[in-house]
Amino acid sequence: MADTKSSASSVSNLESTDESYENRFYQLLDVYNELHEEARKLQYSNNRHKGENRWLENRLKQLETENEELKTKLENIEKHKIGNCKKSVLNCENCSKQLERIKYQMSTLTRFTLGRN
Question: What is the rounded average pLDDT for all residues in the chain?
Fold first, then answer.
C-alpha cells in the first residue's frame, strides 16, 4: 500500500515537474522570439544606416573632387587676370562673373570639408 502511494505521488511529482519544464520552455521561447524580433529590427536599421553612410561617402568624394576643380579654375582665372586680361577686374565682365561664381561655390563646398581638416 505504501508502495502505491509512493508511486502515485512520484507520478504526480513527475507531472508537475513536466508542467514546470513546459512552462519554463514556453517562457524561454517567448523571450527568444522577442530577442529575435529585436535583432531583426536592429539588422534592418543597421543595413539602412550602412546605405546612407555609403551614399554620404560617395557624395563627399564628389564634393571634394568638385572643390579641387573649383580651386584649379580659380587659379586659372587668377593667372588669366594677371597675364592676359588688360582691363581691370572690375571692367572685365567675364573675370568678375567667373570670380563671383567660383567664390560662391567655394564657400558652399568648404562647409562640407571643414570638419575633415
Answer: 80
For residue 105, the SS3 value is helix
Query: What residues contact residue 29 under an 8 Å CB cut-off, 6+ apart?
Result: none
Residues 6+ apart with CB under 8 A from 26: none
- The residue assigned the cell 513527475 is 14
For the stretch 54-98, pLDDT in tens is 999 999 999 999 999 988 988 888 777 776 655 554 556 677 777
Q: Are 100 and 77 in contact (CB under 8 A)?
A: no
CA 27 to chain centre: 36
Instruction: For residue range 7-28, list pLDDT tens digits in order.
Output: 556 656 667 777 888 899 999 9
**Under a CB-based contact definition with an 8 Å cutoff, are residues 102 and 63 in contact?**
no
